[in-house]
Write a structure and sequence with these properties.
The chain is an alpha/beta fold. Helices cover 48% and strands 13% of the residues. The chain has a five-stranded parallel β-sheet, sandwiched between helices. α1 (12-23) links the parallel β1 (3-8) and β2 (28-34). It is globular.
Amino acid sequence: MAIRVLLVDDQPLLRTGFRMILEAEQDIAVVGEAGDGLQALDQVRALQPDVVLMDIRMPRMDGVEATRQITGPGRDGPAKVLVLTTFDLDEYVVEALRAGASGFLLKDAPAHELVQAIRVVAAGEAMLAPSITRRLLDKYADQLPSGEEPVPGALNTLTEREVEVLKLVARGLSNAEIAADLFVSETTVKTHVGHVLTKLGLRDRVQAAVYAYESGLVRPGAQ
């Protein structure tokens, strides 16, 4: 079945360009468009897309708040959010990741990267452009509101290998890269990542990366 995509951007010409790129792919279907966050919420409820391609800076409701409502508690469907940004070090991107976005993409990325990003997020990999994601976390980790501190001892529920995997996820490595680093199969890595998410009550790899920073397991700038 085709991946159902909702385009959310306040610039009609950009939406048209994205639509032309995505509709050329047999496994992707653009099911709707929205010009701001409020329209996006209505379209998500009505169309049940698999992936929402979300701009950040929009009138009425920005992409961060829209992302929070789409992916937060009581959400109406399984839609994943892929955030679009003009700058690769935009603090709003970090806010969007914390709000529940599965990853982000630069607006000037090549067409093939946009297509691949949609597929990656739809598949649940949820860690697009890991090297840039890590740069963002490194740059803004000390500015992120901490909220509630991680439950003391929560990391103790993880095995030694699961802690290793969590550290590598936080560094922005893909499953293939983690597998190569630890000399195990990608299937084994996926299993470890799944255990980490379940034990820590996290939704995806992005939340796991943020958790690793906030818990002190990984420090900004650390290799």
